[in-house]
Known about the structure:
This protein is of the alpha+beta class. It is 28% helix and 22% strand. The strands form 4 sheets. Strands 1, 2, 5, 6, 7 and 8 form a 6-stranded mixed sheet that branches.
Amino acid sequence: MESVQDDGEAxxxxxxxxxxxxxCPGCGSWSGRVHxxxxxxxxxxxxxxxxxxxxxxxxxxTCEDVSCGRRTLVEQVAGLTRRYxxxxxxxxxxxxxxxxxxxxxxxxxxxxxxxARASRNTLLRLVDALPEPQPQVLRVVGVDEYAMRxxxxxxxxxxxxxxxxxxxxLPDREASTVAAWLAEHPxxxxxxxxxxxxxxxxxxxxxxxxxxxxxxxxxxxxxGEAAERCVSRHRPCFRATFAASEPQKAPAPAPAExxxxxxxxxxxxxxxxxxxxxxxxxxxxxxxxxxLPPAVPHVPDRTCSPSAxxxxxxxxxxDPPRHPAGERAPGAQIRPRRLPRTGCPRRAHxxxxxxxxxxxx
Length: 361
């Protein structure tokens, strides 16, 4: 250790290695010839909620083996650093345990609380970099199915019942797949499974000497299903018992005849009497109202020549009435009468008879 600095946010510790040389990772030969040195800043475990950063000076050595393809090598401190690592070994192990316990997002939030800031992707990479655990000798194994796509694709999960940890996942739930996996683990003494026929067949083929039992969950489930089937078979007995125990009710009085003009069950049949009387009176008045004579359709005059239609779109009477000069036409003829549209339906102006406007002379 060379120095310790506290800048309020992080504690920086200056250290260096005093080894005489390093061993080449390529050929394994020892080298003590120093090529150069540089600084590394690996993060260590926090102290009192503050970050700890090592200011580590490492040396680069020259490999003395001519046949080795590696020219230089950097010394690594055992138990402290590794190649291309930005954290110490104990910092990596702590973050990996947090990732195993809480996964990505929750683990990143917890690591930020105690001062070891790391992203969720970093935690997942540390978990993925952990070596595979050595499988133990299984004695009691649980076999069940799991859904990769519910209702479509199913697989098989195998669990060590004694440690309550999953052991392996199989891509399907076929009897041959389960039998092949059980045959690879000859130390299994008890197989805990459900009542699926393919699991029973696979267990009998793969582990013929193992005892097949049902776990607590499937026992309770089978008991509940059996009780439900028993109750459904005796449902008529329950109905007869309840029918005999019910007291006899007095017959309800017959409903009085309704004076509503609407049929029974109609939404207007249950209105108040005054409202019904008002509706009946209104309908009677409407029925007694005199009907208007049917309208006589107007037949347009076809004797009008095309020259009689002016440019403004109004058709004139071909033979308008003549009046003496200085006399005004009667009032009934001053008002223009609208004719039905017999031409193009998109005509903007209606056709008006202008027989109320006599020609001069």
